[in-house]
Amino acid sequence: MWRNFELEKSYDVVIIGAGVHGLATAYYLAANHGISKVAVVDKGYVGGGGSGRNTAILRSNYLTPEGVRFYDRSVQLYRTLAADLNFNVMFAPRGHLTLAHNDSSLRTMRWRAEVNKLQGVDSEVITPEEIKRLVPFMDVSDDTRYPIIGALYHPPGGIIRHDAVNWGYARAGDRLGVQIHQNTEVTGIRTEKGRVSGVSTNRGEIGAPIVLNCTAGWASLVSAMAGVKLPIITHPLQAAVTEPVKMFLDAVVVSGSLHVYVSQTDRGELVFGASTDPYASYSMRGSLEFTEELASHVLELMPSIAKMRVLRQWAGLCDITPDFSPIMGITEVEGFLVDVGWGTYGFKAGPAAAEAMAELVATGRTPQLIAAFDLARFAEGRLASERGAAAVGH
User: Fold this and answer.
1) What is the pLDDT of residue 394?
2) Same domain, yes or no, for 41 and 117?
3) Is residue 189 one of the residues assigned to a domain?
């Protein structure tokens, strides 16, 4: 799939983090700009962080125009990714339903639908009867604790095999000359006179004029090595999966009010998730409290699945910014770039973020697609708030 290399003394670009963002950036640098002397370093293994711990949902029905345009580009890239990489990433457009249980939620859904339409993204508010046709097992009656009064329906949304995405980018990058270094922990970032000069690792020193931080969970700690402070708080995000059963759930179902979402994989497993844990932590262990709360809310939506067994649960780390949007672009240290702060959106954003960051590295100019997500916006009061589309972590 990809080769092992000895560390060279220098590279044109060093990318920290061998998840979808780091691997994809390396691939687009080589494929789109001919820059292949690139090292992707990770203290673990390919896709071992958030890129292998998410629930693999794709969508672009966000709230801000900047967010909608950005995530729509990512969905477009995911749609053709199998052909581009010559690797089956198992993309399945299922349709994405965000349920509304009260008038306030329904107003927000209508707001999002109109923003989406203005950006050319397919989204509309549908009735409980239409929801029932899409998801026959959904309880849309009036005698529930949280009646469903409508939903934001986003037909392009769906799921993809997250491991396959990581493997596909890694293999394609390797074929173009990119070097992937697993089990290579960055222990320091060297700077000279306000610009980056390389990184220190547990395998030796590497010189590089450009270092890109594509980590999740430890983004603020890695940036601090270069003297860059990030307004990020890290929270765990838990998920769980059931035993496989016959396919019955085509759409991805999300309830912000109940803090739960569910989809069914091609193997028949139900994948559940919730919002981030309410405390800051680097723990990736599951909790009984999560399982109990998740089960109760899922059964309020689909009581007929009560006898299904949960096989396993896990957690990932989410770096959350004050406006729930990522941080991409340059920093005050010349040559040190960041693609971090993704909260619960990181996996679905991978291709678009990587394509734009590769363009920034190659040209020295920030692409318009990511200009609104720069680090300077926090000091300048230009927040790009996605809180309205972040009621539940997915």
Assistant:
1) 44
2) no
3) yes
